[in-house]
Amino acid sequence: MTDLTRRQALLLTLASGLPLVAGASRAQAQSAAQKVTVALDWTVNTNHIGLFVARDKGFYSEAGLEVDILPYSDTGAGTLVANRVADFGINGTISLFTQKTAGADLKGVYAVVQSETGRLVFNAARSEIKSPRNLDGLTYGGFGSAWENALIGTIIRHDGGMGNFETVTLGTSAYEALANGSVDFTLEVSTWEGVEAELKGVKQRSFVYADYGVPDEHTTLISSSEAYLQANPKPAAAFVQATRRGYQFAVDDPDAAAALLIAANKDTLTNPALIEASLKALIDGHYLRGNNGAIGTMDPAKMHAIGDYLLAADVLRDADGEALTQRPDFAEYFSNSTLG
């Protein structure tokens, strides 16, 4: 649920360094490097840590790349990639499926997280909410997507409820509304908003989607376009593999990685405790590296399962906005081939 629940604002100033090569000046070395652009799904947070590590530890430059991490804008990363404004972009699995089904040129190439980080949350003091069926008739503070309604309805009905609830579209103000009781529940990312709430002493309880009939998903991916991947196979593989080195470093040395991310974004990441606690949650929860040791690999079974779920829930629409009548070939939506 990253696309729905990670809401802040930020502009970044970015630079890339490349090593000198024998007999060449730094300027010559940089001019020889392959330029690559990557767009963020939202403002800088721990989901992006591998990109900054790979850039600032020199993993990209060692791979012959000069990588620019583009400032977040109101235009989604998937749209920027599909329109060749960016070569790669961080986006949610749900947005990948919905945009590609509608005709966007997108393909998932890297799983930032290995399982769902989203949660349905409510104030811990709501003792009458014992299980999802108790959400029937309550008010949800939401973000305006068809996916949310399908998700929540599935969770409630799986627990024996009717799946009837009121929705108020609030965007990021949903978290304030939840805290003051204006809404009864919302969705958040456990490894960011959930961690932040805990640091603030806000007591919450939550339901895990996969416990109530919703397929587990990778939540956050890095995607590219078929056009870019076909035209630039070597730089594409170099970027993905160097990026995985960045996330591997973050898992192996979280203190150094957190310090690097904060140093690269001093003006905006002003709460080191949040960064450190969030990264700990990503590592301890086996999100950045799965229980099976996977880093970056997309599980085909998960990808097909979430695609089938979205199709059955009528979330997937074609370019004309019409519900699909045939199952797409979801194998075309992603590939692990650039991981090496």
Keywords:
D-Maltodextrin-Binding Protein, domain 2, disordered N terminus, iron, metal-binding, alpha/beta, five-stranded mixed β-sheet, 2 domains, three-stranded antiparallel β-sheet
Structure description:
- There is one protein chain.
- The chain is α/β, with parallel strands linked by helices and 340 residues long.
- It folds into 2 domains: 236 residues, D-Maltodextrin-Binding Protein, domain 2; 95 residues, Periplasmic binding protein-like II (D-Maltodextrin-Binding Protein, domain 2, 3-Layer(aba) Sandwich), CATH 3.40.190.10.
- Helix content is 38%, strand content 14%.
- It has 14 helices and 10 strands.
- The protein has a 5-stranded mixed beta sheet. Strands 8-5-9 form a 3-stranded antiparallel beta sheet. Strands 6-7 form a two-stranded parallel sheet.
- It is globular and about 60 Å long.
Spell out the blueprint of helices and strands:
Blueprint lengths: L1 H4 L20 H7 L1 E6 L9 H8 L2 H4 L2 E6 L6 H6 L5 E5 H9 L5 E5 L6 E6 L15 E4 L3 H13 L7 E4 L4 H7 L5 E4 L3 H7 L4 E4 L12 E5 L1 H6 L1 H20 L1 H11 L7 H13 L15 H13 L28
Parallel strand pairs: 1-2, 1-3, 6-7
Antiparallel strand pairs: 3-10, 4-10, 5-8, 5-9
Helix pairs in contact: 3-11, 3-12, 11-12, 12-13
Pfam families: NMT1 (PF09084)
Family: Belongs to the NMT1/THI5 family.
Organism: Mesorhizobium sangaii
